[in-house]
Amino acid sequence: MTFDLFLALLGFAFVTSVTPGPNNMMLLASGVNFGFRRTVPHMLGISVGHSVMVFLVGLGIAGLFKAWPPALSGLKVASVGYMLWLAWKIARADAPGDGRTRARPMTFLQAAAFQWVNPKAWAMALGAVAAYVTSPSVGAYLAVAATFSLVNLPSVSLWAAAGQGLRLWLEAPARLRAFNWTMATLLIASLYPVVTMEL
């Protein structure tokens, strides 16, 4: 990979990682509801999970969906179902520490697994492999995955930090409720690409 291509990949990874999407909406909500420190495993799960996804997409896992279209339909159903469930959890989240629910932030493994039903993560992985791997090889796929990991973690951390910053303002129950319902609605709105997703 040339230096110019690497710089272009860095830009692609940053823009796609830092812009709104399911991961970042959930991190913002998690930062508000649980704080930055408790959201760290969620952030790490996103970065590691997505990097593994990029690598496996490079090795050809996306070809499974082309070879067997019902697998893509199954992915869409799983994506919609899981994201609707997450939206419901976000919308119904109580104020931190009020004890009425046993809500917990997403774990490392849950966040890593979520990448496989996240349409934006699929688009990012497919786009990176298609555009920035000029000589297909295990090393090239590892390089793209490592670049994403390097850029993704600080990018998504901004969303959790922003959520942490909003905690004081959202201590008012009505504001927190409005925020959580807004985040849930935005997460549901992000489902649109699932319906039109083609691999």
Structure explained in plain terms:
The chain is mainly α. It has helices spanning about 5-20, 20-35, 35-60, 60-65, 70-90, 110-115, 120-130, 140-165, 175-190, 190-195. The protein has one domain (about 5-195). It contains ten helices and no strands. α1 (about 5-20) packs antiparallel against α7, α3 packs across α6 (about 110-115) and α5 runs antiparallel to α9. The longest helix is centred in the C-terminal third of the chain and has 29 residues, at about 140-165. The two termini are about 25 Å apart.
Brief descriptors of the model:
single chain; 199 residues; mainly alpha; 0% strand
Question: Summarize this, please?
Answer:
By secondary structure, the chain is mostly helical. Helix content is 77%, strand content 0%. The two termini are 25 Å apart.
Q: Order of helices and strands, N to C?
A: HHHHHHHHHH
Oligomeric composition of the shown chains: single chain
**How large is the radius of gyration?**
17 Å
Arithmetic mean pLDDT: 84
| Structural class by SSE content | mainly alpha
Contiguous helical run count: 10
Low-confidence segments, given as residue ranges, are: none
Domain count, please report it.
1
Strand content: under 5%
Helix content: over 70%
Report the count of strand segments.
0
Overall geometry comes to: globular
Termini separation: 25 Å
- Biggest β-sheet: count, sense, barrel? none
